[in-house]
Amino acid sequence: MNQQPNLAEPLPDQSSRHFTPLLQPDLAGLYRRRAARLRALAEGHDHADYLRWAARVTEAQATLLPEAGACGALAAGAMPDAGHCIALLDRLLEHLGHDVPAPVAPHLAALRGLAAAERLAGAQALAEGRFDAAPAAIAPLLWAALSLQCATAARAAPVPACGSAELPACPMCGTAPVASLILTGEHHGMRYLHCPLCESAWHMVRAKCSNCGSAADLDYLSFETAEATVRAESCGVCRGYLKVVSLERDPHAEAVADDLATLALDDAVAGEGFQRTGFNPFALPG
Ligand SMILES: [Zn+2]
Ligand SMILES: [Zn+2]
């Protein structure tokens, strides 16, 4: 594994530049980019079937966007309009149909057989971060419906005055980030943390632990060269890590897709004694 001290991380001059504390990417475009990236990363990948399945779920989310509108306000740890979320889950299952990969089929059948109250309890548990209370096999689909609704609600909700607070969790919904993104374009070189629930992204300066804020003992770990698109930013102070996905290095990269396709890096970093400080919606904690 390639390991570099934080001195290797360039520090762009952010002091004189205007920046937006919170970004909310257009959902249709985001889902389209994510699905395309998942399909591209699936080529030759050990877990190609699962990456393509995640692409299909993402495409179903995109298709259902018009139905996800007009839901209630978003609050940290609370589901906006729980009943609507379950209706969206039904529609998601309809869209995914029955032509699904063999390993997924029994879980999908189990989810279809669940009573509405049980689905609601599962989605509620996920919304509150109680991942062990929702069956792991069906959690990503429950999450996909929940996320579709929360992401839509977040775009209709007033943006909190988070200023430059650089929080460790999403200012909109309180969820831990899936990964950091180094952006290009008008936010060139800036780091934003991406929320796997409401799909908002919030600014945090680079070369600082996204979990505890310390800059004292950071390493950037990857399997490839120092120029790898995906690296794990590990912190010797809190022993946490989260991946950094660089759009400067690959303009097609996307937080959820690139993180999901590099779970082998998680195993290696966990093997070094670090604990992941966020999660992927398609690989939820058990
Ligand atoms: Zn959020
Ligand atoms: Zn830390």
Automatic annotation (TrEMBL):
<dbReference type="Pfam" id="PF24860">
    <property type="entry name" value="FdhE_C"/>
</dbReference>
<dbReference type="GO" id="GO:0005829">
    <property type="term" value="C:cytosol"/>
</dbReference>
<dbReference type="InterPro" id="IPR056796">
    <property type="entry name" value="FdhE_C"/>
</dbReference>
<feature type="domain" description="FdhE N-terminal">
    <location>
        <begin position="20"/>
        <end position="156"/>
    </location>
</feature>
<dbReference type="GO" id="GO:0008199">
    <property type="term" value="F:ferric iron binding"/>
</dbReference>
<feature type="domain" description="FdhE central">
    <location>
        <begin position="170"/>
        <end position="206"/>
    </location>
</feature>
<dbReference type="Pfam" id="PF24859">
    <property type="entry name" value="FdhE_central"/>
</dbReference>
<dbReference type="InterPro" id="IPR056797">
    <property type="entry name" value="FdhE_central"/>
</dbReference>
<dbReference type="InterPro" id="IPR024064">
    <property type="entry name" value="FdhE-like_sf"/>
</dbReference>
<dbReference type="GO" id="GO:0051604">
    <property type="term" value="P:protein maturation"/>
</dbReference>
<comment type="similarity">
    <text>Belongs to the FdhE family.</text>
</comment>
<dbReference type="InterPro" id="IPR056774">
    <property type="entry name" value="FdhE_N"/>
</dbReference>
<protein>
    <recommendedName>
        <fullName>Protein FdhE homolog</fullName>
    </recommendedName>
</protein>
<dbReference type="InterPro" id="IPR006452">
    <property type="entry name" value="Formate_DH_accessory"/>
</dbReference>
<dbReference type="Pfam" id="PF04216">
    <property type="entry name" value="FdhE_N"/>
</dbReference>
<feature type="domain" description="FdhE C-terminal">
    <location>
        <begin position="208"/>
        <end position="282"/>
    </location>
</feature>
<keyword id="KW-0963">Cytoplasm</keyword>
<comment type="function">
    <text>Necessary for formate dehydrogenase activity.</text>
</comment>
